Structures
1.
Amino acid sequence: MDSLKLIILLFFLSSCAKTSYLIEQGFGQMSLLSKAKWNDKVLADEKIKESDKEKIRKIQLYKTWFYKFWERDETRIYSKTTFLEGEAVTWLVIASPFNEVKALKECFPIMGCFPYLGFFKKESALEYIEEHKKKSNYVYMRPVYAYSTLGYFTDTILSSFFYYEDFDLSELIFHELFHTIFFVEDEVELNENLANYFGKELALEYFKLNKLEVDKYHKKLNTQVELNKRVADLVKSYNEHLKTSQITSKNQADEELSNFLEKKFRPEVKKSCEKLKIEEKFCYPLKREWNNASFAAYLTYENKLEKIETLRERKNLDLRAFFNYIQSKYEEYEKSSQKEDFSSFLFSELDITK
């Protein structure tokens, strides 16, 4: 389905409140595609910086290696390059009620529901934020440097990719390409965590790090997972507190949040970083601004990494076999009469499901 047909279809299937958003996003995506140039032409253009060309060549290598690794035919993804006017390609916004840590979902025909919205125009993102503020919701916004359209469009290389060093760039590309071979509708949290996990592991495979380097990387990663788990536990406990506090106004919520951050969250996080031997300047949860929406965003992107790692360890599988296992479980899930989501189905045998 081409860009224009998709926009028209979404226009007729959507409510009036969402039509303008879909049209703006559709034309934003079309703008990216219209500005894209075939990679061979970019590489032959003397006006393009050699450092940018080198990034494109590396991305092409990562892509070829990725599909060869999974024994899949290459797609046309990343066959073109789009140079952006700014550093970020979109702006992601998550909203949450003042009395609960929960990402408010936005649902669309065909595409399903998402716990966030992305905006090509920062001004539109800020307008959306103001709408939620009027409803007394908390909001969180961050720049996005890469994303996948999940096959609705042929994704291009974005100039925002060029800010990444080689290892991180490969991880980014493998993350986005993973979405092209596995995606579960309406389960953003699981999709992002799986892409995060496989992106990291594929980067290790690609660069053929020796055992000492891999062990060092996994030690650092496990330390990060431990910190993430502690942050997630604190957020969940705060959410349980909110549910029983009978908070009726945003002012009350602001006070509760401030007390939690100063008396519980930051002291506990600092203690965890000290225990894990993470220098305070690298103890990232102390650097971020937090509210219900940023807490919800954190849980969306970090909550299941530990479960994925534990599941692979339990099964004692190499990376290919582990992916095949997840695929087989998904096929089993689709054939079953399960009412739970696939994430719960996948992790049902683990003690850490909850």
2.
Amino acid sequence: MTHLFLSKNAAALKKLITQRTLFAFDLDGTLAPIVADPAHAGIPKTTLTLLCKLSTHTPVAVISGRSLRDLKHRTSGNFAHLVGNHGIEGIAEFRTQSIEARGTCKKWAQALRRNGEGLDAGVVVEDKLYSLSLHYRMARDRARARKKLIDLADNFEPQPRIVPGKCVLNLVPQNMPHKGTALVALMKQLRVKQALFIGDDQTDEDVFGMISPRGLKIMTVRVGKKTRSKAQFYIRSQGDVERLLRAINEGWADELSLL
């Protein structure tokens, strides 16, 4: 993993500036700053303006763990390509799996309601229809709350795939599409051969660690350096996303300069 804003990487990024490239982004921690209450997260106005400008040149997508309905609200309906629930929702070819996922999550939600009295104060259960997110950022003892949630989820039937995030545990049905498979499906749908994906946490490793299918090229960038991440490049902070968007937008009209 190398820092993206090095002069030696400018050529690689410049090659992506074509109308046949898909630019895809996670939401929380990437386009939107992390906040204590996920309900209050939002894309800064400047970032949204830069994204809209980019979308006039080439396809732009948001691929998130949030529900599709939530994504439409937080992106103000500006983008045609939205994928929710970690890749399960928003791709037509995954419809059968999404129906199966909905039935599974309904069982988990019922189990949580039955055992709700055992949840720590400050834990927020978010039912996104096709996956569940258990937020513990506002719990008094986060470590204790996290352990209790994991113990509870381990007893669910069928057992979920637990994808950790920043003070959140995402419960996703096993053997379902993920962000990586969704990105590839979207690339094929749009008939593009290359993509740039930017994310910030464990849920994005499904893209970072994926081997690009033959004939496709996927450049991956992580927000924040992490030694164990499979991303090819990193930028230091969520604020650098705007810097990257400005550089990409400038690349359409002039020679790309990252420095």
3.
Amino acid sequence: MFESTEFKSLFSRFRDQKVLIIGDVMIDTYLWGSVARVSPEAPVPIVSGVIEENRLGGAANVALNVKAMGAVPILCSVIGDDDRGKLFLELMEEQFLSDIGLVVDNHRITTQKTRIISGNQHLLRVDEEMDIFLNKRVQDQFLELISSLLESGGIDAIIMQDYDKGVLTPRVISEVISASERVTVPVLVDPKFRSFDLYKKVKLFKPNFKELTKGLNLDIKNNEIDKLSEAIQSFQAKQNIDTFLVTLSEQGVLASQNGVLVHIPAMKREITDVSGAGDTVIAVAALCLLAGLPPAELAAISNLAGGQVCEKAGVIPVNSDKLLEECTRHFRNP
């Protein structure tokens, strides 16, 4: 593995890529504080000295990871016509992300996940969201926008980032995949279980272990590699998926293509927060795929990138310079 890979040259090739990211977006809000005592009203901690921070989440975090690697992301999603929607647009502008692919729906709310954290201890999460599928009118508008972006040319890959909040409807999934075939642009998918078996004829399919077992109704452990491999290859053949990549937490990642399976063990790290790691993995995998890397190398670099963001608290994008240094150190050519 990596016998002829020159990582600096590889990473420089990422800058030539333009990636369309389609899926559910959200605001990740953090209330950072400290706990000194327990409430006299109930056996719960009192958090004081709170500092609020808002970050882009969901498919927007995939866009941030694509941008962090030097490529050009175009985010396509639907937000609400509400205060959180306005905040989301402000956060996009702060991160120099284009809003050309966003649709505003006055019948939906913008998803927000609020986490209360003391030190590195995650105390509570409050989700404000709706997960019903987009109505026909909004789907029409959304698909027309996606179609125009694809037909304008220059898109190198499509990432479908499914957080099961209703943007990726069965119709959106089907029509985006059909459109990708017409313009010969590869589709990579980070799925959720509700639409798990709707993703067919895609270039890369990347569930995590929980999504895989729930989507396929499996009773299996993440270290049972042989059983996992059998289930993956069966589903892969049925769905006509080119490359299958499943993340297995502390067991690393498992990649499958053309009947060949590769298990990449996890690197040892100090894990602080796994939030957003899947966003990083799919973003880096897309760029590695476009650079022509084989599944084993794609999986190894994506696995390293996903592990990197787990060392920090909260949802953050990958650090490209640090990833380049880690790739050079861990996969140094002989």
